[in-house]
Amino acid sequence: MQCPVETSLNIIGGKWKGIIIYRLLNGKKRFNELRREMPRITHRMLTLQLRELENDNIVKRTVYAEVPPKVEYELTEFGMSIKPIIVALLDWGKIVRKNESK
Questions:
Q1: Do 60 and 95 meet the contact criterion of CB atoms below 8 Å apart?
Q2: Which SUPFAM superfamilies does the UniProt record give (predicted)?
């Protein structure tokens, strides 16, 4: 049986998922908005990470029947449950930066 920490990290681990979740904490975003906010992620990697987060019920993808098609991503209710953890990581990251600059 997997440790609960391992289960959690399997869902949100990796270089980009936590950042994607962080960027979606304040509401819906379109794909290109996310790309602009994360200029070092490739188109392909963002697509893959969003799909995985969608499969894990962290992110909801909404497609609007428009021309050109409009697609928005947002955190699900379950995805929002990770907000305190992401905020704690943000705060801890600030402490790490401060310690590195000493």
A1: no
A2: Winged helix' DNA-binding domain
Cβ(49)–Cβ(20) below 8 Å = yes
pLDDT digits (tens, 9 = 90+) for 75-98: 999 999 999 999 999 999 999 998
CA distance 40 to 16: 10
Structural domains of the chain in order of their starting residue, each with its CATH number: 4-100 (1.10.10.10)
Q: Which two tokens stand for residue 12?
A: 């949100």
Sign of the dihedral through C-alpha 93, 10, 38, 77 = negative
pLDDT tens-place string over residues 30-52: 999 999 999 999 999 999 999 99
